[in-house]
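Deliverable D4.2, example record:
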Amino acid sequence: MAEEMERLAAEQPGFIGVDSVRDASGAGITISYWESLEAIANWKRDEAHLAAQRRGKQDWYRDYKVRICKVEREYSFPMEIER
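Output generated by the structure prediction step:
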């Protein structure tokens, strides 16, 4: 389902990218990046995404947390051009 949601999100206006990591137990974090709050709101209303959320609550997750954050700056090592 995660792969399907990533594929679907990538087709949405305003989608920038996604990062996801999991530990050996399967616990993890997924971060999706969007151009605007409007793009996030549109993704939140997507029917397939809503169905995946319902299934997650029923079958996969005991709990989860959503944070909406603004990336002010990004850089890495070795240094890349700042965005």
